[in-house]
UniProtKB/TrEMBL annotation:
Domain spans labelled NACHT: 61-209
UniProt KW keywords: Repeat, WD repeat
InterPro entries in the cross-refs: NACHT_NTPase, NPHP3-like_N, P-loop_NTPase, Quinoprotein_ADH-like_sf, WD40/YVTN_repeat-like_dom_sf, WD40_repeat_CS, WD40_repeat_dom_sf, WD40_rpt
Start and stop residues of the WD repeats: 688-729, 787-816, 904-929, 938-970, 997-1029
UniProt xrefs under Gene3D superfamilies: P-loop containing nucleotide triphosphate hydrolases, YVTN repeat-like/Quinoprotein amine dehydrogenase
Pfam hit, one: NPHP3_N
PANTHER family: F-BOX AND WD REPEAT DOMAIN CONTAINING 7 (PTHR19848:SF8), WD40 REPEAT PROTEIN (PTHR19848)
Name the record gives this protein: NACHT domain-containing protein
Signal sequence region: none
Organism of this sequence: Amanita muscaria (strain Koide BX008)
Domain of life assignment: Eukaryota
Length: 1257
């Protein structure tokens, strides 16, 4: 493709066009920096050498051009890039710049390279475009640089470039202007991997001298390094003289000033050459100074320079004196005008220290100086500060701010910019701007836009980009995002600064989160708050308490605030703990909410963060220092900060293993193992098996420097991870649930061994691979094994429910037990404690000399994973939360509420953190330091709510629990439990006895009130049905369903019970049997009865295998005639799981609500089905809360599974979410009434959402 049509896409797919990229190509650099190629005739030898290297057969694949500031590296890089483009050799270029937000980091480095490669070559575009159409490729665009390189460049281009003979040149300039050491390292390592794996690629990289880079390049080898300062003086002087002679010739002068007859003399050129020394930046800056537009007199400007030379006794060999000469134009020597000095320092200091370039108009607000006064300063500094048509001041060269902020170099305090003072002034001004401009609902959104996502809300209210800029102007955006960057360096003893911070935190902090959400910068909130808390570490004040609350607030509600800024007040604030200072200070901002919350949390819980791994998590592991942890699934490993829960990196591959010291992560794809650092950068070491089979399991030991892989062909391979030397290979790996694991000390390697007749565990020396022992092979096999933390023991549970433990050094048997359960196993750090689990129990065991002994049986249902801490706290994950058990005191001490199947858990070694991974991809991190491990939790209900029902007038609420209890509550004016006989203190013992006799023995699964609220019914899994008084909770009678109970319903005269074989009816007056509708074909799960008892609706779930994993099922609704005992209508193929069915008063419609909040109206006359809620039907339902004509109901997001409450506002055709519940709130049951919604939780809490009686604006 020729250069003329280089911007024509070969394959213009939307995925390529939408690749995130920076404006960092070499000609973008020229446009922004007003720079260009080397002056003709200069750098001739160097440019020739680089061109020969790029096109020749040199074995080195990277050319590193290193040089001091101002020596001309970027000009050389631009020249090479431009010439390579002319020859159609330039595949891509990236010019880093400290001044540009998308060019001072590596986040978009490889995506920008990938985009340019698509423009460069048609085959490259097709290969990369195809990858971008896949889920993995699309996801890679937002991941770490290493992931981007692997997914978007290496993998798609590997097969294409193998036969290519022409080189593909990539030019990368100014690596030193990439902000972070880690990011610079990831760029260099990625480029090294690029040229190693794709041989046609050659990389030219320019940078200032970097100690880290020098060490890396020395260790990796194979790179050509040239240091610009090594060029001979006479060559550099000749280049600079050639440049100056041309730039100061009569022709060049008259291009700018046509009437001038002046040009520089030979003596003047000689003086400038001597002044420049070896730095081209001095020569180019001198030209800009001489042609200063404000002076408009090049001859006079030259004389100023010459007089300055005469003033200095030593030759003008460095930049410092030169910069002083320029600065004397604005601050004369011995200047005694403080206003001039202050204005200069404020303007130049702001330009130097702002975190991104800002236009003069925004700078004026930020430093509170008039625009004209800023221009007056900049007019005198045109040779060092570029002010282009966009009115954004940019420093020409980093050496200028380096000089201004260095006390040793810039000795005049009037010229020097004091870093701390300047940052203090900017930070103070940031707080002034925010405290003045921030407010609730800053965009003025109305209904329904205020409840919608940010994007939809702006569209709904018709807010244009111009209006958005007007309401959130640039100075407010900058202050909101970057105030902490300035505060971090500022003087926190400054009174004005601290007063601004205090006002911001006490009065405007939530409004700040709203703005960050609207401008898509909410990610910066975590860091900002943590920085301030660290700065205030020694203080104990309301300020620190509020900031601590704010950190909890943003961690807990990040997702909902990011989605919709105003849900900061609608959803996050109502669920903020009522005892927190933040709640008390800001709850006034929730005064206009549609719903009020009762029964929410009082204090912050232990949850630090709820993260998304992106797939079922099967491994959780902490680093030995407790600072990091990993979550792992097939095809993905993520590394997290163990203090905050923020992501560190994502490692690509199919199978993974992590060294105990977190020094190395090993990842495999097919037959190749790649080693990574925890920051996600590849280490360069790779191992490829010679087998045709793929790698199935990986294990890594940093202690013994070994890596092991189990392959699909049943072989296990053992290598030295340092030099990739194969140590041994053995056969026999296999089994239903095979494992491969090093002991924590690295001295032993164990794997599941399988033959045609037996399954067991093979134990080998972890260093040499020599055989140690076969651990009890048998036909039943060993399903799962674990090493103790000290590596001294290995334990296993088998398919026959047996538990066995061995000495891992010798392989000697310690003990075997039967009937222990096979669905869970964990072993303590020193091997002295074990825990096993089955469906209904967790059993604890200990080693006693030569055998295993049981020490405790815990009655717990559905334990799915377990873990011991180093201080012997046992964590047991159930479907309703994680229970913490103190083995020493033999008592449960706490429950961490969160629903779902946890497949993996781990405590941090310092016992301060617990992390759990779930099969839905969630990862939770808790701070457990505040949990008292020495005593049981306070008394109260800690079992899950399994059922709820409200009386029609919402005055009564009935709750059913996992332990079989039923509670009746009065809801007005506040929630209050009604206990039979509770007022008769003498009968207290009798009450508890009666209550115990009256409770269900199995979990309560079904509840219902009659239409008048006089009676309610409860039912449990074993088929027991109890009828109670709705007023005082007295038991009226007990019935028994013929099978496993699923649902109950009451009319004024009939009780209906749905069970796994049909529906049975009883008369309420005498509890006499009426009829059973047998439904043997499928499972009856819901039942509803018309108010006049004439019709009954039942739901059958038509189950499939997929239902086990929670997928949507097909429901069938049947209509039964109570009088004639017949089925009068059937509605098939309803693609939802139905939660509630309600007859309209005239029995003309049956309104169905799914568990996700989707409504269907079943017309009982013409048998038609209408999808979606209709206002006409909803307002007639007795169980739908109505707020001033607006119906509100429960919903659940189909993707995130998060619960929320929607409203159908009359002016909007679709319902909008008016309140989101926290993601970690494990909702187990919910019910609706005419004026409230009740939500039950896995930790036993019941939360009421009340509708206000007054109109909300």
């Amino acid at each position: 493709m020729s250069r003329n049509n280089s911007h024509v896409f070969h394959v213009q797919t939307q995925s390529i066009i939408s690749l995130p990229r920076a404006e960092a190509v070499f000609n973008d650099y020229q446009t922004k920096k007003k720079s260009g190629p080397c002056f003709e005739g200069t750098r001739v030898a160097l440019l020739r050498e680089m061109a020969d290297w790029a096109t020749g057969p040199d074995e080195s694949r990277m050319y590193i051009l290193s040089g001091l500031a101002g020596i001309g590296k970027s000009t050389v890089a631009y020249t090479i890039a431009s010439r390579a483009a002319d020859l159609n050799l330039l595949g891509a270029s990236f010019f880093f710049s400290r001044d540009e937000a998308d060019r001072n980091n590596s986040k978009r480095f490889f995506t920008t390279i990938a985009y340019q490669l698509c423009v460069y070559n048609e085959r490259f575009a097709k290969a990369i475009g195809d990858v971008l159409k896949t889920e993995r490729g699309s996801a890679a665009t937002t991941k770490d640089p290493q992931d981007q390189l692997q997914a978007l460049i290496l993998n798609p281009l590997r097969s294409i470039v193998q036969s290519r003979t022409r080189p593909i040149v990539v030019v990368v300039d100014a690596l030193d202007e990439c902000d972070e050491d880690d990011e610079r390292g990831s760029v260099v390592k990625g480029l090294t991997q690029l040229v190693r794996e794709l041989p046609p690629f050659k990389v030219i990289l320019t940078t200032r001298p970097q100690p880290y880079l020098d060490r890396f390049l020395y260790s990796s080898g194979g790179h050509k390094i040239f240091r610009l300062q090594d060029i001979e003086d006479k060559v550099v002087d000749g280049d600079i003289r050639l440049y100056l002679n041309h730039s100061l010739s009569l022709e060049a002068v008259q291009e700018r000033y046509p009437q001038r007859q002046w040009c520089a003399s030979a003596e003047e050129i000689d003086s400038l050459v001597r002044a420049a020394g070896r730095l081209f930046i001095i020569a180019s800056t001198a030209i800009r100074y001489i042609f200063d537009k404000t002076a408009s007199n090049p001859a006079a400007q030259m004389q100023k320079l010459l007089r300055a030379f005469a003033r200095y006794l030593t030759p003008f060999k460095d930049l410092d004196h030169f910069y002083i000469i320029i600065l004397r134009n604005i601050v004369p020597e011995n200047c005694d005008n403080d206003d001039i000095v202050s204005r200069y320092q404020s303007v130049v200091g702001a330009i130097i220290f702002v975190q991104r370039p800002l236009p003069v108009s925004t700078l004026a607000h930020l430093i509170n100086i008039d625009v004209d006064d800023i221009h007056a300063v900049l007019d005198h500094l045109q040779s060092v500060i570029l002010l282009d048509g966009d009115d954004v001041p940019r420093i020409y060269h980093k050496s200028f701010p380096d000089f201004l902020t260095d006390q040793a170099r810039c000795e005049d305090p009037r010229l020097r910019i004091d870093t701390r003072i300047c940052h203090t002034q900017i930070a103070t001004r940031c707080f002034e701007i925010m405290n003045k401009r921030l407010k609730r609902n800053i965009l003025g959104l109305g209904n329904p836009a205020r409840f919608m996502s940010n994007e939809d809300g702006l569209k709904e209210n018709g807010i244009t980009d111009e209006q958005l800029q007007e309401r959130i102007p640039q100075q407010l955006r900058y202050a909101s995002v970057y105030w902490v960057n300035h505060l971090e360096v500022a003087n926190i003893e400054d009174e004005a600064l601290m007063n601004g911070l205090e006002m911001f935190v006490h009065e405007h902090m939530l409004y700040w989160l709203e703005v960050l959400s609207l401008i898509r910068k909410l990610d910066s909130a975590h860091h900002a708050i943590r920085v301030v808390l660290k700065l205030l570490n020694s203080t104990s004040s309301d300020l620190q308490k509020l900031l601590s609350d704010a950190l909890h607030f943003i961690e807990k509600f990040y997702g909902v605030i990011k989605r919709s800024a105003l849900h900061t007040y609608h959803s996050a604030l109502p669920f903020t703990p009522t005892n927190s200072l933040l709640y008390r200070r800001y709850i006034k901002d929730a005064a206009h909410n549609i719903c009020t919350i009762e029964g929410g949390p009082e204090n912050w819980d232990a949850l630090v963060a709820n993260m998304s791994h992106g797939g079922p998590v099967d491994i959780i592991k902490f680093s030995l220092a407790s600072t990091l942890f990993v979550s792992c699934s097939q095809r993905k490993l993520k590394i997290w900060d163990a203090v905050t829960g923020t992501p560190i990196s994502t490692i690509p591959g199919h199978r993974f293993t992590v060294a105990n010291d977190f020094s190395t992560v090993a990842s495999s794809e097919d037959k190749t193992i790649t080693f990574y650092n925890v920051n996600g950068s590849a280490m360069g070491t790779m191992i490829t098996t010679s087998s045709t089979s793929t790698i199935h399991k990986l294990a890594l030991s940093s202690e013994s420097s070994r890596v092991a892989a189990a392959l699909d062909d049943g072989t296990v391979w053992l290598w030295d991870s340092g030099n990739a030397r194969l140590i041994d290979r053995f056969d026999g790996f296999g089994g239903y649930w095979p494992r491969l694991q090093f002991s924590p000390t690295g001295t032993r390697l164990a794997f599941t061994a399988h033959t045609s007749s037996a399954i067991g565990i093979e134990l080998r020396d972890g260093i040499s691979g020599e055989f140690v022992a076969d651990l009890q092979r048998g036909s039943n096999g060993h399903r799962y094994f674990e090493f103790s933390g000290d590596g001294s023991r290995i334990a296993s549970v088998s398919d026959d429910d047996s538990l066995t433990m061995w000495n891992s050094e010798s392989g000697a048997l310690i003990g075997t037990l039967t009937d222990v359960g096979r669905y869970g196993l964990t072993i303590s750090a020193n091997g002295s404690l074990l825990a096993t689990a089955d469906y209904v129990q967790v059993k604890l065991w200990t080693e006693k000399r030569d055998h295993l002994a049981q020490i405790k049986v815990l009655e717990l249902r559905d334990a799915c994973s377990m873990a011991f801490s180093l201080d012997n706290i046992l964590a047991i994950a159930t479907r309703y939360g994680i229970k913490l058990y103190n083995v020493k005191t033999r008592s449960f001490i706490h429950t961490l509420p969160f629903g779902g199947m946890s497949n993996a858990m781990a405590f941090s070694p310092d016992c301060t953190r617990l992390a759990a991974g779930y099969d839905d991809g969630n990862v939770n991190l808790w701070d457990i330091r505040g949990i008292n491990t020495s005593r049981p939790p306070s008394k109260g209900n800690a079992t899950a709510v399994t059922g709820l029902t409200l009386s029609r007038d919402c005055s009564r609420l009935v709750c059913g629990f996992e332990d079989g209890r039923v509670e009746l509550w009065e809801t007005s004016p506040t929630k209050r439990r009604i206990d039979p006989l509770a007022l008769r203190s003498k009968m207290e013992a009798i009450f508890f006895r009666i209550f115990h006799q009256s409770r269900h023995t199995e979990p309560v699964r079904a509840l219902g009130f009659d239409p008048d609220g006089r009676l309610f019914v409860s039912g449990s899994e074993d088929g027991t049905i109890k009828l109670w008084n709705g007023g005082d909770g007295v038991l009226r009678g007990t019935l028994k369903a013929p099978g496993r109970l699923q649902a109950v319903a009451l009319s004024n005269g009939v009780l209906a019970a749905a069970w796994n074989g049909g529906v049975t009816l009883w008369g309420l007056d005498t509890l006499s049997f009426i009829h059973t509708f047998a439904r043997s074909d499928d499972r009856v799960v819901k039942v509803s009865i018309a108010e006049n008892s004439a019709l009954i609706a039942v739901v059958n779930d038509v189950s499939t295998f997929a239902d086990i994993w929670g997928n949507t099922v097909r429901s069938v609704v049947s209509l039964l005639d109570v009088m004639n005992h017949t089925t009068v209508a059937t509605f098939d193929d309803i693609p939802y799981r139905i939660h509630t069915m309600t007859f309209l008063p005239d029995n003309s419609q049956l309104v169905v609500q799914s568990d996700k909040g989707i409504f269907l109206s079943l017309n009982l006359v013409n048998k038609h089905v209408m999808k979606g809620p209709t206002l006409e039907h909803l307002i007639r339902l007795p169980n739908i809360p109505i707020w001033h004509g607006v119906p509100i109901w429960h919903c659940q997001d189909k993707d995130s599974e998060q619960h929320y409450f929607a409203a159908l506002l009359s002016q909007h055709k679709n319902p909008v979410p008016v309140l989101w519940t926290p993601r970690d709130l494990h909702v187990t049951a919910w019910t609706q009434g005419s004026s409230m919604i009740a939500v039950g939780c896995g930790d036993g809490r019941v939360i009421l959402l009340r509708l206000p009686t007054s109109l909300v604006s």
